[in-house]
Structures are given as structure tokens and as C-alpha cells.
Design brief:
The chain is α+β, with helices and mostly antiparallel strands. The chain has helices spanning 12-20, 25-32, 39-44, 51-63, 85-88, 91-101, 120-126, 171-178, 184-189, 200-207; strands at residues 67-71, 79-83, 131-137, 140-146, 154-156, 165-169, 193-196. Helices cover 38% and strands 17% of the residues. Strands 5-4-3-6-7 form a five-stranded mixed beta sheet. It has a two-stranded antiparallel ribbon with strand order 1-2. The chain is globular, with a radius of gyration of 18 Å.
Length: 208
């Protein structure tokens, strides 16, 4: 592994960028916020990254205390990567970047890759309160853990167990919320999002 590059500036922003400023690092964090991931799963959900670059970034994140690698017990017996507590502290950084960059989304380009769970963090910003939320889109399903202070904040597929709220919407509505053009409560009032469930979050969205 090559030595860590540094801006050599006595500034907290520069020091932060020494750790996470390389290309792909923050997107790897985005994927690991879903919990432990195998290398092959990370590579599949980061279209465009080479195997060499992904392996290098993961080693750097281990060295810098942002991620760890461990072997799952049988019957899985595979290696997974996961964020450390310090790595999970990057959640508000990613949310702030996503909010700032929302206006750059525009219309989806033919060359744009998309994964349903990439909408998880923008939707998480729109939720107030705590609870488990399952989201169903045309592209797939994912779930969010609103108000989670530690551990995975979202995941692929149906929610594990009964969710506090179930949201169904089309891709155009989800993209409008992600771009900041449409507030989630307004989308519910307009009938563009169907909310079911008996949890506090579901009731709050229906009554907003």
C-alpha cells in the first residue's frame, strides 16, 4: 500500500480530506452504511470502480480506522467489510453533501447507473422521528432506520420484521424528493406516496 498522501495543511478540513478525499472513498462509506458488505457486493454496487482501486481504498480505510474486515462465522464463512464507529460518524457528512448536490441531479442520463438504495440517504433526511421504514420503488425495495445512532442506517430488500411505516412511490416522486423539489409530507398529501403501517412514523406522515 502506498503511503498516505497529505495536503500538509494544519487545518481540520484538510486533515479530513487526507482520509476521505480520494475518489470512491465516500461512496464506499455510503455502501457500508448499510452494514457489513462482501467485496463482491461492494464492487457490484459501485459501477465504474476497478477492482484494484476498490481493494486499495478498502485497505486505506482499514489503515485509517474507518472500516474493518472480518470473517463471518459458518455457514457464511466469508469476509465482509464494515464501518467502525468513526466511519459511521461520516453519515451527516454524506447527508450534507447529498443535500448540497441535490440540485446537480437534473434528469437521469442514459449513462447513469442507479440502485434503489441510493435513494436511502436523501429519504432519510426527509424523515423525522425514529423507526423502521420500508420503501418500495419500481427499481426495488430498501429500508431505513430513522433516528439510528449506531449500526446500519439502511439496507437492501424488505425490512427485517414489521416496519413502522411502509412507503410506496414511483421513481419520479422519489427522484423529486431526492432533488429537494418535493417534500415527503407534501408528496403524501398529493397522493404520490402511499403510506401504510401503524407506527408513529406512518401516522405522522399521514397526518402531516
Amino acid at each position: 500500500m502506498s503511503p498516505r498522501r497529505s495536503y500538509d495543511q494544519y487545518c481540520s478540513t484538510a486533515r479530513a480530506l487526507d482520509l476521505v478525499g480520494d475518489r470512491w472513498t465516500l461512496l464506499i462509506v455510503r455502501e457500508l452504511l448499510a452494514g457489513p458488505r462482501r467485496y463482491t457486493d461492494l464492487h457490484a454496487d459501485l459501477p465504474g470502480v476497478s477492482t484494484d482501486v476498490l481493494a486499495s481504498r478498502l485497505k486505506e480505510m482499514e489503515r485509517d480506522g474507518l472500516a474493518t474486515r472480518r470473517r463471518l462465522p459458518p455457514p457464511g464463512a466469508v469476509y465482509v467489510y464494515e464501518l467502525t464507529a468513526r466511519g459511521r460518524q461520516l453519515l451527516p457528512v454524506l447527508q450534507a453533501l447529498g443535500s448540497w448536490g441535490a440540485r446537480e441531479l437534473g434528469e437521469r442520463r442514459p449513462t447513469d447507473a442507479v440502485r434503489a438504495h441510493w435513494f436511502a440517504l436523501p429519504l432519510l433526511r426527509s424523515l423525522e422521528g425514529e423507526g423502521l421504514v420500508e420503501v418500495r420503488l419500481e427499481e426495488g425495495e430498501f429500508y431505513l432506520r430513522a433516528g439510528a445512532e449506531e449500526g446500519p442506517v439502511y439496507g437492501d430488500g424488505p425490512a427485517p420484521g414489521t416496519a413502522d411505516a411502509y412507503l410506496v412511490m414511483d421513481a419520479a416522486t422519489c427522484e423529486a424528493v431526492a432533488r429537494g423539489e418535493l417534500a415527503l409530507p407534501q408528496a403524501v398529501r398529493d397522493g404520490r406516496v402511499t403510506v401504510t403501517g401503524e407506527g408513529t412514523l406512518a401516522k405522522a406522515l399521514r397526518e402531516a
